[in-house]
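Notes to self after the Tuesday call (sharing in case useful).
The group wants a holo model before anyone commits to mutagenesis around the pocket. I volunteered. Ligand is beta-D-glucopyranose. Logging inputs and output together so the record is complete.
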Amino acid sequence: MQRTLAPKVSGWSVMLAWSAACTGGGGAQRPAASVAREPFGTTDQGAAVNVYTLKNAHGMEVRATSYGGIILSLKVPDRNGRFDDVVLGYDSLSDYQRASPYFGAIIGRYGNRIAGGRFTLDGRTYTLARNNGPNHLHGGLKGFDKVVWDVAPFEHPDSVGLVFRYRSPDGEEGYPGTLQATVTYTLTDRNELIFDYLGTTDRATPVNLTQHSYFNLAGDGKGDILGHVVTLNADHFTPVDSTLIPTGEIRAVAGTPFDFRTPTAIGARIAQDDEQLRYGRGYDHNFVLNKGGTGGSPGEGAALTLAARVYEPSTGRVMEIYTTEPGMQFYTGNFLDGTLRGKHGVVYRHRYGFAMETQHFPDTPNKPDFPSTTLHPGEQYRSQTIYKFAVQP
Ligand code: BGC
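Result:
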C-alpha cells in the first residue's frame, strides 16, 4: 500500500486552512480542515520543540509534537457528537522528558523487548541497554520517543498531516547502521489517523517501529478501561516468560482468556488465575494477527488487514485498527499505578488506558522462526497502520 508522502506545503508559519467548498466538495459548507504550529518549549538539551494541531472537516483534532512524535491529544466525537480527548498524556514537555511510560510516542529503533539486551546479526553480537529488568525495551535509554524529529506539515484535499524524519546514526543505542526513518501521520476526512513508516539503512539492522498511544475511549481520565469491548483478529498469541520475553511458542487463543475473536470486555477475564495473565499483570502480550497467508517482513509490502475493534459502551465510540504488521501488543495499562499525574491534573490509576501497538513480534532478533525484522541496505522498511474512529448506537 503505497501513498504519496511528499509534503505539499513549505514555508508557512502560522496557520493554513481551507474549506471543503473550495476543494470541490459541493453542497453545504463544512468546517475547514487545518494544520497549525506553535512552540512547545525547549528540551533539557536546548532543542526547540513545536506542537502541531491537525483538524479534519468533521472537527476531529490531533495534536502532536516534534519531541518523540508524541500525540498529545486526540479529540473524537461520541454518539451524541460530543468531542473528548481519548488519549493519555501530559500538559508540558518537561513532564514528558521527566517520566513517561511512552505516552503517545513513536517507538524505535526496535519496539518491544529484546532478551538480555543482546542479539547476533551476520556473526556479530550487539549489546543494547537493559532498560527493562534484564531486557531491552522500546529502543533503549534514548529511543525514538525521546528524540526531536524534523517535521513537515502537509495538506491534501481530503486530509492533513505531518511528516516526521529522523536520522539515527550508526551505533545509536547500540544498533548497527545509520537508519533513515520517516513516519507520516495523516488525519483524513473519514476520521482515520494513518501512520506510514518508512526506513532505509546502510548496514543490516533490526527495525520495528510502532506508535504507543494509550487510549481511553470514554475520555482521558474517565476511569479504567475494563468496560471497553475488544475484538481481536487473532487466532494465536505469543506466550511469554516472567520477564515478558516470548518463549517462541505460537499458542492458540481458543479456550484461554486471550480469545478476543468475539467482542469481549477487557475486564471479563483479566483477573483469571492464568500464568500468562500473572506474568503480564494483565494483558501485555503480542497477538499474532490473522493475515490470510501474507508474510509481512520488512520490505515485503504486506496486506493491510483488520487487527482490532474496540467499542466503549457509555459513549458509543469505536476504534478500528488496520495494519500491514503481523503482530500487535495489547497492553492494558497494568503498570499505571496512580503515581503519574497527567493532563489537567488527572491521576492515572491502574488500567486507565490501553495500548495496541502494531508491530513485528517481540525479541525477533533472537527468534529465527519469527517473521524477520532485519532491514538490509537497498531494502525499504515499509509499514502502515490505520486507527479509524466511528460511533455505534
Ligand atoms: C510494554 C509494557 C510496558 C509499556 C510501557 C508496552 O509496550 O509491553 O510492558 O510497560 O509498553 O513501557
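Two things stood out.
Residues 17 and 34 are 5 Å apart (CA to CA).
Residues 101-102, 244, 284, 329, 331, 335, 357 surround beta-D-glucopyranose (CB under 6 Å).
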